Amino acid sequence: MALALSLGARGLGRVWPNPAVGCVVVRDGRIVGRGATAPGGRPHAERLALDAAGKDARGATAYVSLEPCAHHGATPPCADALVAAGVARVVTPLDDVDPRVFGEGHARLRQAGIEVTTGVLADRARQVHRGFFLRVGETRPMLTLKLASSFDGRIATATGESRWITGPAARRLVHAERARHDAVLVGGGTARADDPVLTVRGAGIARQPVRVVVSRHLNLPAESRLVASVTEGPVWFVHDRAPGAVPDAEAAAWTDRGVTLVPAEAGAGRQLDPHGILRALGSCGLTRVFCEGGGALAASFLQAGLVDELVGFTAGLALGAEGRPCLGALGIEALADAPRFRLVETRAVGGDVMHRWRRVSAGTR
């Protein structure tokens, strides 16, 4: 099962809106087939593993990192494929939360006389499939917030100089994190100030993440590097869905440049509603989003309790109170109101420190 989960996780960022599933077929103590959900979501892991196993699948055990699907979509159900292949046993970590599948895949296997074992490495599987589960259950993707800052939490000097606070090893790891997500997200202020490209570079990947900018009225530069590179990977702009918020002619100009416009609900003040932003992205099929700022957008997601994972890169320099903070105002008056995260990983990356945290629910503080 550990191998199946590892195989599936390699597809994170490349298989949305599907879950990243792995499958290993074992017969007489020997692996006879393996597969992982293909880029774009098809074919499924089970189909690829069964094809690799061929006739050796009969009487074998299939380890699948999520309940096999039981519904007809672009391909026939994987539960039926396992039955037709004649496997004797199927091992999974947990049920699929998709209501079209939930429990039905396991039930179909049992009805065919196949032994089914569930609950194996379930906690690890929940983490791998967290984005897919959130999209199905809460109609939003998993959100990872990345903060790269000085030791005292600054992202730039008072004059705006920011390249580079962290070193090349940390930046390479950021590109690897981008590759593990369906989309990279920034706010309009960051897009205007930094003119980022937001692609994955130096990792040898063919399928780029979606590059998303949040801008309520689409007041973004038309000649940006992001728009100029639209052929390298999808570019989406999230904007206010209210009538008149974006004139029709302006919207048409962006789509003519190859940009996809994603309308979302407006919140109070000058910001789009953070829940509305993620619901809009979830409705487009995204399961995992990597947010790289800016400070106001990051603060809004933290305030709303929508940051599922926090990845920090801390450099060994200090910029002082006059430097620009990595987060906007949160309006916190009591420590009990501060968003809490649990440390799950820390390590040196070149001359910097990477630390990964996961959200702590109110009941576990």
Outline the structure in words.
With about 375 residues, the protein is α/β, with parallel strands linked by helices. It has 2 domains: about 1-130, Cytidine Deaminase, domain 2, CATH 3.40.140; about 140-365, Dihydrofolate Reductase, subunit A (3-Layer(aba) Sandwich). Helices cover about 25% and strands about 25% of the residues. The chain has 12 helices and 16 strands. The chain has helices at about 1-10, 45-55, 80-85, 105-110, 120-130, 130-140, 170-180, 190-195, 225-230, 250-255, 275-285, 295-305, and strands at about 20-25, 30-35, 60-65, 90, 115, 140-150, 155, 185, 210-215, 235-240, 260-265, 290, 310-315, 325, 340-350, 350-360. The strands form 3 sheets. It has a 9-stranded mixed sheet, with helices on both faces. A 5-stranded mixed sheet has the order 2-1-3-4-5. The longest helix is centred in the middle third of the chain and has 12 residues, at about 170-180. The relative contact order is 0.12. The mean pLDDT is about 90.
